[in-house]
Automatic annotation (TrEMBL), chains A, B:
Source organism, top-level taxon: Bacteria
Pfam families the UniProt entry points to: PadR, Vir_act_alpha_C
InterPro entries named among the record's database cross-references: Tscrpt_reg_PadR_C, Tscrpt_reg_PadR_N, WH-like_DNA-bd_sf, WH_DNA-bd_sf
Protein name: PadR family transcriptional regulator
Location of the Transcription regulator PadR C-terminal domain: 89-173
Transcription regulator PadR N-terminal domain mapped to chain residues: 8-77
Length: 203, 203
DNA sequence: TTAGACATGTAAACTGTTACATGATTCC
DNA sequence: GGAATCATGTAACAGTTTACATGTCTAA
């Protein structure tokens, strides 16, 4: 069993659901496409980790509702007790930021503004989700506690990244000020600008 | 060419280096094993994006020092101008946190403490790296500016995650207080505890 | 003396993405 | 009329990891 399998067991541990629903719920935990989820569910069902029930629907296609079994819960519990593997982040944005100034300096501001817009959008969506979490699910005793704290985690981190973006924008702006004013600026003005650039690193 | 290829070009854009060195430098940009890097470098060399020079060494194995070509710079520049793909984060810790309380509540505190330790270790290492960045490389004009801002980004985010971990620990602690004191606590005390639990969400 | 850094490569296995396949319903 | 949602599946391909291979030097 791979990590995706345990992620699936985690989601099913709260609510039985279809492969289609799993694909959306997994997004925050361990992103996967339906083409990976369906075959794995079949395999897990054969191994007795999950069971499913056919649900006929009118107007919509029929679906299979999967639930976790006792064996599945045991397997999940054993896996959780192991130390988690190091996290892996793959983000093209980081590569582009890294090389931005060697390749095309003017494009940098646009790239960062688009990043901010995306992050703000994500935060807004999650804020709505957090707002619908009822107070009784915000406590350790609730099975929705894990989801609640993870939603908050993502938002804290995304907001922090927005702050970082704004810091970088400030650095870019200040460097433009220097460039435009170098011809007329006195040494005193220049030093003031240089000092203002490092305002963030002192926080 | 895949994203790893552009990540390699990005690193070579600053400093020519060997496949072995690339493996370490790529860690923050696009993690990859040497078994993936070496064959790709050969392919990129055949396509004229990079060139290499044999360097004989005594005591150590010989190495190939790769540099980016003009064609490589053009390819990188064109790729940077495209919109970055959505970032992908795969983190087993998140799955374990999500399921922690259904499977084994007592283990949660340990898991989070280990997370904090790891994050603090990473931050300390990066702080050292940031400290060695000279002031002239902290400006947009430097080819090390990208690395400098990315180091700061990672540290800001890791520090924010440490705060989040401490918030979760607080929630867990408070729930224990409630559990232990329920038999003797007055309604007033109970309400005070409940209020203290949400202190963080008001920030 | 044993682990880790330096250094490069290949092969097999596994994981993940894209494309192919089908089809009704609802909302703009 | 077209896109999105619901719903499940397979096949081919691309990307990533683990294991196999080899060998020296240095520091704990």
């Amino acid at each position: 069993m791979n990590t995706l399998g345990y992620a699936i067991l985690s989601v099913l541990g709260r609510n039985p659901c279809s492969g289609y629903q799993l694909a959306t719920h997994l997004e925050v935990l361990w992103p996967a496409k339906h083409s990976q989820i369906y075959p794995l569910l079949t395999k897990m069902e054969q191994n007795g980790l999950v069971v499913f029930e056919h649900v006929e629907q009118t107007g919509k296609p029929d679906k299979k509702i999967f639930s976790i079994t006792e064996k599945g819960k045991e397997a999940l519990g054993a896996w959780i007790a192991e130390k988690p593997a190091d996290s892996i982040l793959r983000d093209e944005f980081l590569i582009k930021i890294y090389s931005m100034w060697t390749a095309d300096e003017n494009h940098a501001t646009e790239l960062i503004h688009e990043r901010i817009a995306k992050l703000e959008h994500k935060v807004a969506l999650r804020d709505k989700k957090i707002a619908t979490v009822e107070d009784e699910h915000k406590h350790v005793s609730s099975k929705h506690f894990g989801r609640y704290v993870l939603l908050n985690r993502s938002n804290l981190l995304d907001k922090e990244e927005i702050s970082w973006c704004q810091w970088v924008l400030k650095l870019l702006e200040n460097s433009n000020v220097i460039r435009f004013s170098l011809g007329i600026a006195s040494a005193v003005t220049f030093n003031k600008i240089i000092q203002s650039i490092s305002f963030f690193s002192e926080i």
